[in-house]
Amino acid sequence: MSGEPMHIISLGAGVQSSTMALMAAAGEITPMPTAAIFADTAAEPRKVYEWLGWLETQLPFPVHRVMKDEGGLRKNILSSIDGGRFAGPPFFTQALTGKSEGKLRRYCTSEFKVGPIIQQTRRMIGVGKGERAPNQIMAIAWIGISTDEASRMKPSQDHYIEHRWPLIELGMSRNDCLQWMRDHGYPQPPKSACTFCPYHSDVMWREMKANDPESWADAVDIDKRIRNGVRGTTQKLYLHRSMRPLDQVDFRTAEDAGQLSMFNDECEGMCGV
Fold it and tell me: I want to staple 273 with a disulfide (CB 3.0 to 4.6 A). Which of 3, 55, 144, 211 is the partner?
């Protein structure tokens, strides 16, 4: 466990991380990564998995697909309804004051995204389960955060991993990434996010309902199933901040000043990039 640290891409299979991976493949970001790691929640839309399959054919380095548990995040949510441990999204619920919405604590990012990537990184650098990593940088994790999301940049919490933000280094915004894709003849990547993510904006919900009936049906199903709470809460839970059943929400008003957006409050640099 000596020598130069490994360069490893945290691949969300969205616009930014896909662009970053393809730029590395083209030699526009160096050095060439050892590998990319995709943390699979088993809850992405079908088109994201299709895109990832295509992307793997374009890269000269391997993509490791990792998952916390068989069945992923959806299985965890369903089991928590029956009393199992909850490690899911921050579903909306009535605040204890009764005057505004509240949210459950968010566990899904650390448990189903960050954790599996860290575990795979440890395997790649040769640190076994329960072993302490050497007191040196063993891996450099490339995070696909662009200039319009710079507030999401955070240092690694693991002493042997260093975070790097190549798109920030290049001064690239999300639109710059899309333009790079067009300039190089690549199709536009889909938005990467779990179908039932509470951080979806009204625009995203409306697009899903209109254009992705399979994902919409899954989100509506989860929304109904969580209504009477998960382990740790008996309050009614909802996917939408209006605290109405998802299939009864009118999304035609789009995003107002108070609407959450996937681009200002998402999964700590791991989802949707």
Answer: 144
